[in-house]
Amino acid sequence: MPQELLFQVSPETASNDVLLIEHIAKLIRLNAKEIQHVSILKRSIDARQKAVKVNLKVTIYRVGDTFEENKIQIPEYKNVSNAQEVIVVGTGPAGLFAALQLIELGLKPIVIERGKDVRGRRRDLKAINVDHIVDEDSNYCFGEGGAGTYSDGKLYTRSKKRGDVTRILELLVAFGASPDILVDAHPHIGTNKLPQIIQDIREKIIEMGGIVLFETRLTDILIKNNEVQGILTKNGDTIHANKIILATGHSARDIFELLDRKQIFIEAKPFALGIRAEHPQSLIDSIQYSCDYRGEHLPPAPYSIVKQVGGRGMYSFCMCPGGVIAPCATSPGEVVTNGWSPSKRDQATANSGIVIELKLEDFKPFAKFGALAGMEFQKSIEQKAWHLAGETQKVPAQKMVDFTQIKVSSNIPKTSYVPGTTSVEMGQVFPGFLSQILREGFVEFGKSMRGFLTNEAILHAPESRTSSPVRISRDSETLEHVQIKGLYPCGEGAGYAGGIISAAIDGEKCAMKIAESLK
User: Fold this and answer.
1) How far is the CA of 34 from the CAs of 25, 38, 400, in angstroms?
2) pTM value surpassing 0.85
3) Which of 46, 195, 261, 411 is deepest in the core (most CB within 10 A)?
């Protein structure tokens, strides 16, 4: 009978099937030849002691036990060409998984996306990096797959109470992601692999009778008697439907402005804002693994730090081991940073957002903008960074210790941020209270991670798109907008998710609520 087992092994043993089976055989007092197969259920790194260990949860199949390879398949969707139509606005994880769920429930998604398909986006990303040209509809945030496509594919979530995390992971595996995401404690797909997965999901939606329209920006929502009737697009087209899933992401400022202009109820939402710090990956490895050389059997080390500084939370966000920093502006005249890693996380640098929790009271200087006050606060910092960096996509930069000492850095070394850097005293980018908290916080971070506070670390500013500055209010039971019937605010842009997995779960939930309402 198959047996489950929890244990620790060295990284060398965990990465070698022969050594692993020999180790398990000794643990359960069995001859290694009597073990038919070992399935890994969960895997995580334990670096709390000097000798780094790998935690494993496995199922052991002895010779004679029934074992079948569990190959995850794409669900057998039915064709929905002639089914009732539902408009899905946005092709990020919320929109794509909403569309798949609609098909599974027998409804036809009409998916519109303001940006280009994944391949078409690449030319526009090059234009940002090389020519400093930002296309408002096609960039690191907008286009097929949303911000997640070219922003790493980290799948870690604390949102297990929101819904079925395993279902989302299995769907991603079915569409081409590595099965490792089902077992790793911090699963990750990689920016180099995501485009093909996203493309395959889109092709499945079309194959089953759904419609996907690129370069189709929503410009208005048609409403009669507080009920949606359809949408208008920038192309001049009208698409009719009385159910709309609004999954436009946390950077769709034109959508927030549209809703506010139409007096569709939204509210300002606190978010977090700060900088993106880049260290040599070898330095982070030495700190986290207590070693001079990481070796081939351990992955590039991540880190996670949380501190209370000045009565606010300051924490690492979207940490990218072996990754790079990317320019993520969505309009000309602003600078925004984010980070990503390829699947092997094999770049020489590690980066992470280091951000501070904001409060609604911080937005008081922008109170005249009402529900958009937080968005305008966010925008003001991004525009200031653009001016300080010479009105290009270069980024204001400063060495970490120099920042804590309010000293302009000389000789900023080349970083992974391709458009380049401009040496700036970072305090000029942020309001005074944020600069002070960041300075104090980095000193505290250095106490927790010896070696973290160093001038080998280069700060890039700002990291400002951590989550939506607006919440589009909806009923907690029906998930419909509190005011407009048939409108389903969804995912990160509506303020109900914080990453790929939670956004995908929210998309599925909205699709299911639509199906329930139609019954």
Assistant:
1) 8, 11, 56
2) yes
3) 195
